[in-house]
Design goal:
- With about 200 residues, the chain is an alpha/beta fold.
- It folds into two domains: about 30 residues; about 160 residues, Rossmann fold (3-Layer(aba) Sandwich), CATH 3.40.50.
- Helices cover about 45% and strands about 20% of the residues.
- It is built from seven helices and seven strands; from the N terminus they run ααβαβαααββαβββ.
- The protein has a seven-stranded mixed beta sheet with strand order 3-2-1-4-5-7-6, with helices on both faces.
- A hairpin with a 2-residue loop joins strand 6 and strand 7.
- The protein is elongated, with a radius of gyration of 19 Å.
- The N and C termini lie far apart (about 70 Å).
Length: about 200
């Protein structure tokens, strides 16, 4: 009987811990200008296709959340960089990237230990993921071929200015917003399924 009580108490503690983590995840986001909103998995293929993400691209996700877009880009062979402030989402993405072999630091360590040739290294299809716990307004966009932005209508003018001032010429920008036309002074090159493609 005592074992049943101990197991029951243990399960209650686990449930409370789980609920606390969920609460902290959303409580943290309540204080952010742009809270966590997960991109639906069925929309990610639209983003990959619209941005023409391919092997060797550098993809930056401003507000990467749980890293869904980062993993989809890395599967295409891209180097995906996410900027996220929520510490739980950063830890989750780093853990998952390491577990699935996408962590850029883990990949470098393994490649050095295997001493593979540059020709062999080029045949590795899997990209890498780097997640930075950093404000997206401080992101270095200079190396990006593709930049993904999700934002509310009130943040779009600021996003437009930030991206066009900091991204390299030719960079592709995918925008998802609650606004009909995201950037106030630029016209999208293409629109599909609620996403807008811009080019710098």
């Amino acid at each position: 009987m005592q074992i049943i009580i101990i197991i029951f108490l243990f399960l209650i503690i686990l449930l409370l811990l789980y609920l606390l983590i969920i609460f902290l995840l959303f409580a943290f986001d309540a204080f952010l200008e742009l809270p966590y909103v997960a991109t639906r998995r069925d929309k990610i293929s639209t983003i990959i296709k619209l941005a023409s993400i391919k092997k060797g691209d550098t993809v930056i996700d401003l507000g990467s959340g749980d890293g869904r877009l980062l993993f989809a880009a890395a599967k295409k062979g891209a180097h995906a960089i996410g900027y996220e402030l929520n510490p739980l989402l950063v830890m989750f993405t780093r853990f998952k990237a390491g577990l699935l072999g996408y962590s850029s630091s883990e990949r470098q360590r393994v490649e050095k230990s295997l001493i593979i040739s540059s020709r062999q290294a080029r045949t590795i299809k899997k990209g890498t993921i780097t997640i930075k716990r950093q404000d997206l307004w401080e992101a270095d966009l200079s190396s990006a071929n593709v930049i993904f932005v999700y934002g509310r209508a009130k943040t779009m003018p600021r996003f437009e200015k930030f991206v066009y001032q900091n991204a390299k010429r030719g960079a592709r920008i995918i925008v998802n917003t609650d606004k009909t036309i995201p950037f106030p002074t630029k016209n999208p090159t293409k629109a599909e399924n609620g996403f807008y493609l811009y080019k710098v």
